[in-house]
Amino acid sequence: MGIDANDVKKLRVKTGVGMMDCKRALEEANGDMDKAVEILRKSGLAKAAKKSDREANQGLIMSYIHPGNQIGVLIEVNTETDFVAKTEEVKNFTKNMAMQVAAAAPICIQPDDISEEDLEKEKVIFASIAEKEGKPEKIIPKIVEGKVQKYYEEVCLLEQSYIKENSRKVKDILNDLVAKLGENIIVNRFVRFKVGE
């Protein structure tokens, strides 16, 4: 059966799990949302069980225009309650995430958002480069694995080094905020504009 993209998004907001895993869970559950949540929980993918039942359908949309007016970002961060969405902590986090997107140009939020097809293409490229460099065949899979991790750190927002604190990843900053405010908080989506692109 065909799975509606809106249902995939709803499940992602509900659980904080990546789009591809949400789609697979909905397919397995024949489109039943509650069953899909259960499948994700059983597989250990759903974020902390106590938070995953709580939908993050409040939040903020913020814009950021980089000095020089050549790069602009729109970003949506979701929280469980309107009250938490209006806190200075969430506003600052959202603004900082918009700046992160402007500076580091991620293409998605987390590794699960990259299609298997695109990931396979990258792996083929990484393996081909390693072969051309004359690396021994038996260590090529390890090299590819390492390159995939580096690729995630370049293109996935949550895996990137945080621009204001390079020793930490963006996901660490988000986890700190969740722990501090006690709510499920997710970066739901963003769009980055650059003049001429």
Outline the low-pLDDT stretches.
none
Proportion in helices: 40-55%
The CATH topology of the largest domain is what?
Answer: Tetrahydropterin Synthase, Chain A
What's the helix count? 9
**Whole-angstrom Rg:** 18 Å
Number of strand segments: 5
Tell me, rounded to a whole number, the average pLDDT: 85
Distance between the first and last residues' Cα: 36 Å
Order of helices and strands: HHHHEEHHHHEEHE
Query: Could you name the CATH homologous superfamily of the largest domain?
Result: Elongation factor Ts, dimerisation domain
Q: In terms of quaternary structure, what is this? A: single chain
Structural class: alpha+beta
How much of the sequence lies in strands comes to 15-25%
Shape: globular
What is the level-2 CATH architecture name of the largest domain?
Answer: 2-Layer Sandwich
At the first level of CATH, the class of the largest domain is Alpha Beta
Strand order of the largest sheet: 1-2-5
